[in-house]
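Sharing a chain and its predicted structure for anyone who wants a worked example. Both blocks are below, sequence first, tokens second.
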Amino acid sequence: MGRPVIFLILFSAFNSCNFGHTFSNIKPQSLYRQRIPDSRLVIYDFSYAGAFATTSDYKGYAVLDSATPFSADKIKQLPCTYFSKPPMKSNFNMIHLDRSRRKPADTLLVPIGRYTSQTNDVQIEVVEYNDTYGNASMSTGQMEYAFDSVKESRDSLTFYNITTKSGGNPLSSIPSFAKGNIKIIDAADTIIRIEIEQLIIGRGSIYKPTAPLLLVPDQPIVGMATYYFHPKKTIRMNALSDYGIFKRII
């Protein structure tokens, strides 16, 4: 009798975590936070291990008042995780890529849907696209670079004297990226790398599915590029703010 009862209790607890997020004492596997200029709200990038969600990792973005401690039962999850514009105090513009209906032949490169939702008094406008080729294009997937210095403005980060480490096309000599989709990976308050997500919509070269080493030019591409920028010299975490930039909490 003992074992079935214990199993039932654990099963119920994990299901409560998955659907109601009532177990506030469960700690996330990782937690990053960015602030919004002129706002009390903050955005969290959270991830809980699979045991918390019973089947797979539970992760995403959440928006909370900065005076509210982050916990599982306080999560106000955002519908997707890409900002098309830097987040503002009362309005988020976001883009969702639908990978479940991936269509390489989708040549229109136009949205397949739009909707608006509300979370913590923030109006969230979401535009949906079909993901086309995933990581099979020259313009998308993971690319790594090294840089000498970085300059922060209210709305963007600009990198100087970059060199290519691996993957993808060379970037412009002075690339800038809008805030919102930027995360700093650190160790002992030193920047290890800066990760940036950028949506790519346009035409470019893809690897032919039936011949992975053959590039086919001028194909429609809707997908995500992930840039890793590694500093060539030591840069302390406090060199950059957390406004529009995710910094690690856990």
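Comments welcome. Helices lie at 2-19, 50-53.
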